[in-house]
Design brief:
mainly alpha; two-stranded antiparallel ribbon; 11 helices; 2 strands; globular
Length: 211
């Protein structure tokens, strides 16, 4: 029997270290570290926001674990997700990326990241920062208690943000992709009730200054 069988209906499991986590975080060491130190903690750094939007686009049709394990290779391939540099990529760079076995070699997704970098440059010139636009779509109502059955795949805010990005020319930014981005970047706290990280993520959100 799983050591946290009694908690499973709520989606919380207890790992070998005795810590209760959201169910998905217990399936691989990479997930555990990502869940405990990154997922759900608020981010205002434009490069990190651009990286996450890019990687969420690459994840389409794949697991996040696949992308997470390739993240360092993606960072090397895309200039650390410095969108100003990526915006200058040309067809030679596309060919280079298509030959890079360390990343997901999908022409449409690669070209989307380059396109989105150019859109990010324009957005920052218009809004001052990518973070300012993204955080303007933060939900104003947050659930005090959350179990697995209450998790959503899209929200009104993710649909609105996806729509705004698409209006500005971004690609691979559908509402589901954008909601996963919002969960990861701390715009919502979707750590489940009983997860040992939920309180830390909430405290970080409360201390966070909107960009």
């Amino acid at each position: 029997m799983h050591p946290a069988a009694s908690a499973e209906p709520a989606g919380v499991v207890v790992g070998e270290d005795g810590e209760a986590r959201c169910w998905w975080a217990d399936s691989a060491p990479e997930y555990r570290d990502y869940h405990d130190t990154e997922w759900g903690f608020p981010v205002a750094d434009d490069r990190r926001l651009f990286e996450k939007l890019s990687l969420e686009g690459f994840q389409a049709g794949l697991s996040w674990l696949t992308i997470l394990r390739k993240r360092e290779a993606f960072r090397r391939a895309f200039a650390g997700f410095d969108y100003v540099q990526v915006a200058r990529f040309d067809e030679d760079d596309v060919s280079r990326l298509l030959a890079d076995a360390g990343i997901v070699r999908h022409r449409g997704k690669i070209e989307a990241v380059i396109n989105n970098a150019r859109c990010a440059v324009e957005l920052v010139a218009d809004q001052g920062s990518l973070a300012r636009l993204v955080w303007s779509f933060e939900p104003r109502v947050h659930q005090p208690d959350l179990d697995r059955g209450a998790l959503l795949s899209t929200t009104a805010e993710s649909r609105a943000l996806a729509g705004e990005l698409k209006r500005r020319g971004w690609r691979f930014v559908g509402p589901t992709t954008v909601y996963a981005f919002m969960q990861a970047m701390g715009l919502v706290n979707d750590h489940l009730t009983g997860c040992h990280v939920r309180g830390a993520a909430q405290a970080a959100r409360e201390a966070f200054s909107l960009p």
